[in-house]
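hiii so um. not sure if this is the right channel but i have a protein structure encoded as tokens and i wanna go backwards to a sequence. like what aa goes where. can anyone help
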């Protein structure tokens, strides 16, 4: 379904939040997306019709819950072309990355002692690695960005070496919107026998990902950034690696056999899924994927590109504005900017008075803000399927007024 302004307005009707917040312009989709009624219904239906725990009960209701839960995992696996047992349910991207930072030490070959990241990382793809580096006396190496806000691939080639144990990077920057050349990065990682990890938190809703074609070892993402419920995230991992690394949490649901002194782990993915899982949320995520696929990720990307082009053109008309974005062809629906010397928190608060919602501040990327020379952070606009040109006109008019008020 090709999206235009009219279709975007039609899709908007699927999102009940707008009925309950009349006139709201929601431009904070990178923080969390809104949920269509189809997803909300799937979650409610589960609780109202099929609620039972999974993987234990032998009665009809529990079996139905198990089928729904398994089907959700299949939908997620198909979505990224993974095998079903390669999909691990976590809480979110952050937990997926933590799982790796706790368990990968066991498979890092002797002599490899470097973790390579990029200057664009969200704290969730930095702090877990800092922790691992301190614990194991490893070195963090950070690939630079260029002045056009894209990744410096020459620097990547220098920093990714046979010393690299782990190469973890974001697919799309949550601040700059930059789409990284992940195929090339994974190739460099594989050539140097590094463990490659893709943070797909900001790309999963608008770029088609095929993990088999990419050849990455791991991929992490969150349901709540792709029209799905909160509380559920995914870690994809290559089967042969998941089988080698140890569990991350211990308890019920992740074992095959337990004695007083010992336990044998369940097969993957259950080995990594201790305790009762977020069953309704997993089913809701399956529904969100069906919704995204019905529209088509290419169509979503095209629409977000059109909105980006339009927004960049309008933003550039505001005197004294500084834009942090690499352009509509190299970015994915996220634009950050500084409105002269006005603090981003003031920008956000004043926009909020007009019912316009954006993110303001460091966007969980403090080191990047420091690099850009803006410790106070940025104002950030981020799009979804339901955003329209009129909403961009609204924010532009409001930004111009804010600028005048502070002059
Ligand atoms: C690129 C990126 N990585 C990781 C995260 C963390 O996601 P979550 O808070 O859902 O764990 C975010 C959230 O904004 C993000 O944008």
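sure thing!! here u go:
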């Amino acid at each position: 379904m090709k999206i235009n302004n009219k279709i975007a307005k039609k899709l908007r009707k699927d999102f009940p939040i707008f009925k309950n917040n009349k006139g709201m312009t929601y431009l904070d989709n990178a923080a969390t997306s809104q949920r269509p009624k189809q997803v909300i219904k799937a979650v409610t239906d589960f609780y109202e019709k099929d609620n039972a725990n999974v993987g234990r009960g032998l009665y009809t209701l529990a079996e139905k819950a198990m089928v729904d839960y398994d089907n959700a995992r299949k939908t997620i696996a198909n979505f990224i072309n993974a095998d079903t047992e390669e999909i691990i349910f976590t809480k979110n991207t952050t937990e997926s990355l933590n799982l790796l930072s706790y368990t990968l030490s066991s498979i890092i070959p002797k002599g490899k002692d470097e973790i390579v990241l990029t200057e664009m990382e969200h704290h969730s793809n930095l702090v877990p690695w800092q922790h691992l580096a301190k614990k194991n006396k490893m070195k963090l190496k950070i690939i630079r960005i260029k002045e056009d806000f894209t990744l410096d691939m020459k620097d990547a080639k220098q920093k990714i070496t046979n010393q690299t144990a782990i190469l973890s990077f974001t697919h799309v920057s949550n601040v700059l919107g930059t789409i990284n050349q992940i195929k090339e990065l994974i190739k460099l990682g594989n050539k140097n026998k590094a463990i490659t990890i893709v943070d797909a938190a900001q790309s999963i809703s608008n770029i088609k990902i095929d993990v088999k074609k990419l050849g990455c070892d791991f991929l992490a993402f969150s349901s709540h950034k792709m029209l799905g419920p909160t509380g559920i995230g995914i870690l994809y991992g290559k089967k042969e690696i998941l089988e080698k690394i140890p569990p991350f949490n211990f308890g019920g649901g992740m074992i095959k056999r337990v004695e007083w002194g010992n336990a044998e782990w369940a097969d993957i993915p259950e080995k990594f899924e201790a305790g009762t899982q977020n069953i309704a949320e997993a089913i809701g995520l399956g529904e969100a994927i069906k919704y995204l696929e019905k529209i088509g990720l290419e169509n979503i990307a095209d629409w977000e590109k059109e909105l980006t082009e339009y927004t960049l053109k309008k933003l550039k008309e505001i005197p004294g504005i500084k834009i942090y974005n690499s352009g509509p062809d190299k970015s994915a629906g996220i634009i950050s900017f500084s409105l002269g010397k006005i603090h981003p928190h003031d920008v956000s608060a004043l926009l909020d008075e007009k019912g316009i919602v954006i993110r303001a501040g460091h966007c969980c990327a403090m080191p990047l803000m420091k690099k850009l020379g803006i410790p106070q952070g940025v104002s950030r606009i981020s799009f979804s399927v339901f955003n329209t040109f009129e909403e961009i006109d609204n924010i532009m008019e409001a930004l111009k007024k804010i600028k005048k008020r502070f002059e």
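oh and Residues 28 and 358 are 5 Å apart (CA to CA).
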